[in-house]
# Entry
Amino acid sequence: MMKYLVGIGLIAGVLYIISIFNRLVLTKNRYINAFSQIDVQLKRRYDLIPALVETAKHYMEHEKNTLERVIAARNSASQNLRHAHQNPSDPAAIAGIGAAENTLRQAISNFNVVMENYPAIKADGAMRQVMEELSTTENKIAFARQFYNDSVMEYNTYRQSFPQNLFSSLFGHTRDAALLEFEDAQEIKLPPKLGFLGE
# Structure
């Protein structure tokens, strides 16, 4: 009888450890999938920025440095995203996206300030269309980032909790996933502030 109970206990223990392994895999795959949604939206934004700059060039001939900073920041952010795309589990790669995004957001914020000196841009149909697409994309990025960060928190909390923390390293889950953080003060200022949609 005792051997029978010990056998049941061992089977239950093995099944529990298997369930820990499966849950770690599930939560990791969830945040990696969530990252792929951010990846899609950021790429879309990076594809729109050259059109924004190209349209602005016709009006902002004397603001070459501002436009070049936007393109340089966009290129850096795009490169960081490609690096993170190869390994979304790498906290340094995710931190690189955050830093590059903050630089890009600051460059676009400066662009928006300079653009206020060129009222003719606001009437340009191509500029209005690009800004509307950027606004929509920015909203999608915010939702995708929230879902990603929620998924990361779920994974990290599960991985750190007892008794999962006893097994996570054995199963290859040796570090926490990184949150994707942007500095909210440097959010891109979009059409309502610029007056594109209400004019």
Notes: The chain has a mean pLDDT of 87. The chain is about 75% helix and 0% strand. The radius of gyration is 23 Å.
